[in-house]
TrEMBL record:
Protein name, UniProt field: Amino acid ABC transporter ATP-binding protein
PROSITE patterns named in the record: ABC_TRANSPORTER_1 (PS00211), ABC_TRANSPORTER_2 (PS50893)
Pfam families noted in UniProt: ABC_tran (PF00005)
Single GO MF annotation: ABC-type amino acid transporter activity
Keywords associated with the record: ATP-binding, Nucleotide-binding, Transport
Transcription regulation as UniProt keyword: no
Domain ABC transporter: 4-234
Species: Bullifex porci
Length: 234
């Protein structure tokens, strides 16, 4: 696992070529090795843009981001490599519908890491066990519930042995009864010492797992502290 360091990050969007939206304004944030940091704040406050900048799904307007000693914002850095090393789980699961659960998980290790089929499948089964879905290896995504699909998506990210994991509202698209099964997997990852940066509205998760909670408003980091500090004072 690794440390994520965001330094003085700003991101402007030009909407319709006219209005400039300052989505993130001079934000600095460190997620130390093995830490869990949760970003909270109102809709449109820049949470997702900040998160997506870490693996350069958004190109920052200014500022720097480091994963350990690699500057991902350096134009010379190979972004494909960064995206291999930083796992990301989205609100929508984005599984390949025509592939089995097992093949969804083995695809990247086989294609990108050149892992042989047997090793990739062994790894996939271990990860499926970890997310409680070993019996679904041969299923297709459309045979699974939303919660199960999201757990497969997490397993698929983990198969690349990422240095850190990003989560962008991973439970927001799920029916209430499925949220807990996904949060339990995320909680287990947190306890395992996975470096995690998340945008989530699940305050119970933040209380239970976060080392730090960061509050954003209008593109700025307004406040940060432990869950106790952030949630107890008036
Ligand atoms: P949050 O995740 O907190 O809801 P976002 O990071 O998604 O906030 O958005 C921050 C601001 O940037 C919002 O005003 C949003 O409308 C704007 N924004 C996000 N993505 C784009 C885009 N691709 N083009 C233009 N504006 C965008
Ligand atoms: P958009 O389609 O608006 O650009 P998406 O959230 O759909 O935004 O994803 C942006 C790109 O990132 C897509 O090409 C997607 O395939 C890619 N992507 C998906 N998963 C990952 C990941 N784990 N790490 C990096 N990039 C990813």
């Amino acid at each position: 696992m690794a440390k994520i360091e965001i330094k003085n990050l700003s991101k402007d969007f030009v909407a319709n070529g006219i209005k400039t939206v300052h989505a993130v304004k001079n934000a600095s944030l460190t997620v130390n090795d093995g830490e869990v940091v949760v970003i909270i704040g109102p809709s449109g406050s820049g949470k997702s843009t900040l998160l997506r900048s870490v693996n350069m799904l958004e190109t920052p307007t200014s500022g720097q981001i480091f994963i350990d000693d690699i500057e991902v914002t350096d134009p010379k850095t190979d972004l494909r490599k960064v995206r291999e090393e930083v796992g990301m789980v989205f609100q929508s699961f984005n599984l390949f519908p025509h592939l089995t659960v097992l093949d969804n998980i083995t695809l990247a290790p086989r294609k990108v890491l050149k892992m042989d089929k047997a090793s990739a499948e062994k790894l996939a089964l271990e990860l499926l066990e970890k997310v409680g879905l070993k019996d679904k290896a041969k299923s297709h995504p459309n045979q699974l519930s939303g919660g199960q699909q999201q757990r497969v998506a997490i397993a698929r990210s983990l198969a690349m042995n990422p240095k850190a994991m990003l989560f962008d509202e991973p439970t927001s698209a799920l029916d209430p009864e499925m949220i807990k099964e996904v949060l339990d997997v995320m909680l287990a990852l947190a306890k395992d010492g996975t470096t995690m940066l998340l945008v989530t509205h699940e305050m119970g998760f933040a209380r239970a797992a976060a080392d730090k909670v960061v509050f954003m408003d209008s593109g700025e980091i307004i406040e940060e502290g432990s869950p106790e500090e952030m949630f107890t004072h008036p």
